[in-house]
């Protein structure tokens, strides 16, 4: 219990020592450690999910200036996620098509295995192969808010095979931090501003190459992996989705800032209601290689790329060579736009709630229609389940918004609507077709992870050479978290909380069988144990049934009631296993003579 409090809750390093030095504390609590150093040594003996590695990157003209990348293998992270017994029964290994009726004319899109992309990919793989949908997310986050502020660049990995209801809950540990990208500054004073920017972007792509290199190889050759249910699956880990904000989308896809990372629409046509021709990796690499062959310096290379809508800062993108992967298709549409900085998603939603009410009676009807249809689009896009009908409503709302938005230009509110984030709305429907509902790849899902994986980890360091220290703290945090019992995992009914105090301690089975209040209880217990045994061993493997056998215990604790909570749906669902209702056992009332 003490290890859980000190390591997980972030108590200062000296506080445990002060408490443990109090006479009688160690003896009365039966602790196996007497100070925080010994406690950390015990935690370090727990096997970690995967080992951390350190890589150093440098440029040929300045090999002495090295840039650190702290990471752990993505394949080990995938093994951890697929091998988690708590998720063994929920992980999906093959895609499926779901329709709303028997005519199969209205297709439903919800989870990632319902999308078209997985189906198309499965047909290209050998028979018996299982697709593992790898989802990557990066997000630069500020660690301090004052002058000389420091930043961290965490990179997260999760799997589309895991249901989104599990992926979005940090307590389920379905998302793993696989690395801290290099945030070092380029100190060479002889370089121009453009050359420094180019090197920063090259450093980002080289860091990604270092971390994901083995994932690229495994996608080509496939690998055998033991899953949480004990079965061996032959998997192909394929990079499916990349979640990032707009700035990082341009950086990852190597497109020019101000253009669309997914299609080739010119800047002057971003206000159109229809997307342009989709980008492909072959086209982007063709532009980069052609510009590289025709230029003799960075300025010429940059100019040639910019003329085609490509950034021109990076000559070797990290995604080159990944199998069955198109970074432009896999880049998820950005889901937020505002001129306000440092605004949270909750604040943005609250503003949307009152926006229309503030405009009623103060603006023209066309302005109301423009904003009304845009809000309709936003709320329709947040549906956890879509079908062909709801996607039609989504397109209609977008059409109405584009039809009436010109009134804002006439009134002088804006000069144009060639805004990349507004243009990204035209790609929502295609992304839902490909990868399911938008909350499968929403950047909001990873915002809460910054607190533990970046901010809290940084606060435990001495603020010098912090990445190895952050990795060490994260190992201890995960080890303690993995050993801390979760009431939702230990309870066979995840939404039911049994009353903590039994009504009868150790009541004998003979008394239970003779009681008229609960006939058939012993048989129900045997049936439940048979189900557990069948699940652990497998059907048809000759397990011993308990129908004609004695139960392996003689007494039971009898409870007088239990609490339960219904599973909530939608984005407002709370990661909470707390009770909200009671079911109590009411014995039969005795008769007048009884």
UniProtKB/TrEMBL annotation:
InterPro entries: Plavaka (IPR041078). It comes from the Eukaryota. This is CxC2-like cysteine cluster KDZ transposase-associated domain-containing protein. It comes from Suillus subaureus.
